[in-house]
Amino acid sequence: MSSQATLTLATQEQAQEMGLLPEEFDKIKEILGRTPNFCELSVFGVMWSEHCSYKNSINWLKTLPKTGPHMLVEAGEENAGLVDIGNGLACCFKIESHNHPSALEPYQGAATGVGGINRDIFTMGARPVAQLNSLRFGNIKLDRTKWLVKGVVKGIGDYGNAFGIPIVGGEVFFDDCYNTNPLVNAFSAGIMKKGEMISATSSGVGNPVFIVGSRTGKDGIHGASFASKDITEDSAEDLPAVQVGDPFQEKLLLEATLELGKTDAVVGMQDMGAAGITCSSNEMSAAGEHGMIIHLDKVPTRQKDMKDWEILLSESQERMLVVVEKGKEDIVNAIFDKWDLSCEQIGEVTAGDRVKYYMHDQLVGDVPCADLVLGGGAPVYEREYSEPAYYQEFKKFDIESIKQPTDLVEVAKFLTAHQNIASKRWVYEQYDSMVGTVNMSTNYPTDAGIVNLKGTDKALAMTVDCNARMVNADPEEGCAMAVAEAARNIVCSGGVPSAITNCLNFGNPYNPEVYWQFVGAIKGMTKACKKFNTPVTGGNVSFYNQSAVEGREVPVFPTPTIGMLGIVEDKKHITSLAFKGKSDLIYLLGKCENDISSSEYLASFHGIKESPAPNFDLDVEYELQKTITKLIRAEVLESAHDISDGGLFITLLESAMYNNLGFDITSCSEIREDAFLFGEAPSRIIISVQETKEDVFLDILKTANMPFALMGHVTRGDIRIDDKSFGDITEYKKIYDNALALKLK
Amino acid sequence: MKFGVVVFPGSNCDMDMVYVLENILKKEVVKLWHKDTDLKECDFIILPGGFSFGDYLRSGAIAKFSPIMKEIMGFANAGGFVMGICNGFQILCETGLLPGALLHNTNHKFICKNVHLKTISENTILTNMIGQKALKIPIAHGEGRYFANEEIIRDLENNDQILFKYCNENAEVTKDSNPNGSIKNIAGICNKDRNVFGMMPHPERASDIELKNTNGRKLFESILSKVIA
A409: how many CB neighbours lie within 10 A of its CB? Predict the structure, then answer.
């Protein structure tokens, strides 16, 4: 018999508890032609949550460029975008957030984020080959921050290490705005043979529907709704909404899924992420324009007597819904038996558009799938937005109001030790970065992570980037700069930017000032992606990253993390960020700017948080990247490293440290020395070149329309600026390597 | 020489090992599924790294009960060559084919990085070609702290069973160069009969010239040189 709840008609109050608006409840009644029962309301509640429906963002997301010459699957069509990388291969990649779970239970929150993003990749039939992640935490001095950092990093490590996919790059950033809401964004990329993609669809009346992988438990129920609201003091009560991960099951599921993909038994497959069976059954049915019957009592469960709606909404990890061609059930059973995974037929494909859920032969839910999904009947809203006052205020900043410190060596050491600049090895040494034997950056550090495509001349380049402080100062320019930085990292490493995925972390979309940040970021991303010819293949939106501080809602910095994929056409073009030898010449490509706006130096050393984003010109950036590519292909560069966090000094330091070298340079006389050393103006790259190749190098530069300057040369270990000693590389290296571990103690 | 690479459900370095043997060293290699009971006439069995059965209990604790392990124990006891890397080393210790145990790293964290190894015994098929220069080979483990009681350690030393010790880049065995707290910096050992080998570092991750480090390849070349000679 069915549970009490399903017999009862749902109420307005229940709808509200699930995060639905009164008008949304009315719309549900209109669609069904009656009042939904509790089970059906739960289905609508999760499917129409911000997390699943993108109801407050989709109108703007649609304006992003999504077509490109190499796109095989565009944004929104499947679980992840798919890019043709040549040699008969395709790469699918995506970034996703797991912010809300990680704020409550950092270990499991981050671990299941890694699990979820990888399932998105292998459910399409691709074997994941590399991962990256982008993490943001609050003030490093807070015990809560230390707890979050340790938990998140261990969660990512324990899950990813056992699953066995290397982490080849990432970023970690600390700022007070993330005190309550950390951001955990996980990126994964996978490779498949072109034409072997498994689609997230369902068709063929009478075809059986299987649930495979882990058993279904009570974890993660209403997780999607939970991710669609602010974090408050009551959030601890949402703890059951956090899922629990099992990387061993995921590894088995990966191998079984890929084995299944090689057979002709599969019609369609989708992983279970947010909203579990509900989401996968409805999205697959809507995509294939069919109906489906599901017998919830046939779903293998962990606990006894789970309610129908609990089974429907469970976000238990490591599960897939698979539609199989009728008559080929044995193939599926044999594969999952081999891998000791559960595999149960729970329903079948039907004609029409209704998805019907049964419990012990009693109908407990009957919903039209098209009305539930994004692009179908899910609500779509236009949100109001307005420019916040701070935007113009920040522009009033004047560099002359900042007195240049007399001791710039002290500043240099302060920045080297700063948590946003110092080595993140405390973090990444807990990740297996070398499993798979494809990470080409381990012994040859590069701006982007380089992943070997064994047996070909090619490699992939991947990076995640976002300077959220700059996005906050100017959402449009800041986001364009994030795309540009990602492209610059790929180009400096010897690759060609191909496409991006994004993870849009913002506050409450109902706050017009937050929404203004969101709109600005989308506009900036659009213009930059068009310039670099890098379509947006998908990603996710995470709103409600804000919390109440003394009665006021405080959002995190707008953080549109850009995950970019690039292709290295010929491995001999891979270029390291590390200086190679003493007396090589050091050049700056780009301009010396008298600008310290939004730099770590200004924000942390001087404590000035109110300043605009530095000037940025997309055309200048594009010319710079074209030039670097030309130089790399002419094989004249020893190293290339883009200038970002910490400015020119930190960039030189990073280039010098790997081989224990130093540098001796002269500053630009026209600008302040602190701006020269620590300003973070974009569109600048530090390169080194052997003296014997300088002529060829200059010949190429002369044909380019861009400023450049000789800075000085590489030394055996001394650091000298304008003939003043800044110390020795070994002392900086010691600070750089150990600062983060010391601060996290 | 025919190599067999054992695949447990949670192995994740199996394909890396097969790649090195097959594509780089051009040798015959087959995968051996953990439920199998046939060693397919292999001359040299490798237990690769990974998390054999999730390793939630203790690394390698469940793997030792696999059908294939029964065969491997018989093979090893009859003098057949068996090598365990990382999780494979843990499994060999669990089965008793090698003495001692691998405990949690002293910092209680997973550690993945390049380390240096000094070859202590050159008197094995695995180490005869290496020489005394420090090898740069990566580790990647949470439970890699080698431990054994004094008596076992004395035996290992007296019988020349210690293959590798963690060292610095100048091949000096120092406290600072010990990444996980292993007793006496031990990174790898063999059995008394010198046909079963275990090591925590991953030589297969340092064998491909495209990754700009081939220090690990010397171990495999040692094996092959000995056999051909």
Answer: 14
